[in-house]
Here is the input.
Amino acid sequence: MRQQGDIGTAGTRDLSLEREATRFREDVISGLGTSPKRLSSRYFYDAEGDRLFQKIMACEDYYVTRAEDEVLREQAPDVLQALSGGRNGLDLVELGAGDGAKTKHLLRRALQEGRTLRYRPTDISAHALRGLELALGREMPALAVCGEQGEYFELIRRGFVERGTPTAVMLLGSNIGNLPHERARVLLKGVADQMAPDDRFLVGFDRKKDPAMILRAYNDREGHTRAFNLNLLHRMNRELGMDFNPERFIHAPVYDPGSGQAKSFLVSTCQQEVHLPGQGEPFRFRAWEAVQTEMSQKYDDAMIGALAQDAGLRIAARFTDGRGLFSDVVFARRD
Ligand SMILES: C[S@@+](CC[C@H](N)C(=O)[O-])C[C@H]1O[C@@H](n2cnc3c(N)ncnc32)[C@H](O)[C@@H]1O
Here is the structure.
């Protein structure tokens, strides 16, 4: 993994972990200092958040991972074909790769097909990235892996295309759904602007479906999503020295079938103050005041088509699981 201060192959510096820590503090100050209060879902993923997310992915109520896993496992040859445009060589860049469990179906298949493949996982979580690189070293020693730590927009700004081999960029796991429409459009356009005509961009979209099924995925019966959401308070205590009492907050997810947005909140059960060392004024919470911590947009085909259109992309292929819960859509530049 490229670390802070290393010079990447694109000749640019990696996002320093120190800057990420400063940004966390600044985002907490601005997010809790405004009304309505909000915190970015990017901060869910410290080592404990990564561990809890593994539990969410394995639990029965969280259908998202299983549905996409089915797509990439059962349709791996066709997905690879769509990503490489029929050519042998492929540079596979993944944004927010996490544990890469679903991507491994594509990687194994590519190795079996004897393709010249280089896998370039990226993630904001250095912990997740290190785990993935170690696992790949053990499981697929023949695979060329070049990881890079960083935030999506930062990575896109740095540039990811290295000419010579077709590049396929991937954003799996409904990560796109965590971005509001305008940010999602900017991300897609940022990738589109760097793509050559043969390059491809695969995006995983969680589809609109029975609202009860969606809500349950964010409020699973085993309590993993609750622990994941509350971990954000523990993380602010651990990393910023704050004094949240997590027992005074509850996990409150909602799903609005009109907008297709699932949102998670941390709701203060009483009037309280929380302190951040070095920050004069405490953060004040009214009883039942909510902090939004996550938004997950659910899509239908019309919304996916409109997003592609706005970003200058066209749909080259579309893969969906047997129950129609999740779609992996392959985009190409629309020239
Ligand atoms: C929901 S997990 C999904 C992981 C993987 N894509 C999958 O489908 O299993 C989200 C991953 O994206 C990373 N992530 C979240 N926000 C990010 C951001 N703004 N920039 C880069 N990575 C981010 C997290 O660290 C985490 O590993």
Q: What stands out?
A: The radius of gyration is 20 Å. Residues 17-45+211-297 form one domain. The longest strand covers residues 249-256.
